């Protein structure tokens, strides 16, 4: 099992936990130096808060744990392509790598007509992350 698969397996576990609470089955982790420093699962339904996507929750957790707001040495793994909202958060916090399994072409920040995750014309964000799509099981 390679490193991408190891981190994606944890995302899948978090997605299962999200589904058990009535949320969309999405899980995400932030990795820095080969160590998970943030975890998140979809949590929009309990508090009726649309910003509680797994990716945003993982980034919030990483910021809390690390004390850093810029995560430029970190990677984000997620079961689903980050949406436009999550892509904005990823770019704001300057993550270097995004790895996902399932594309979401209607609102995904990489495959939709508004690729916020990879645009280069918003200079305050710096360079876009490298984006990899893994093939699921």
Automatic annotation (TrEMBL):
Keywords associated with the record: Metal-binding, Zinc
Molecular functions per Gene Ontology: hydrolase activity; zinc ion binding
SUPFAM superfamilies assigned to the protein according to its UniProt record, in alphabetical order: Cytidine deaminase-like
Domain CMP/dCMP-type deaminase: 2-114
Signal peptide: none
Listed InterPro entries: APOBEC/CMP_deaminase_Zn-bd, CMP_dCMP_dom, Cytidine_deaminase-like
Coiled-coil residues: none
Protein name: Cytidine and deoxycytidylate deaminase zinc-binding region
UniProt organism field: Spirosoma fluviale
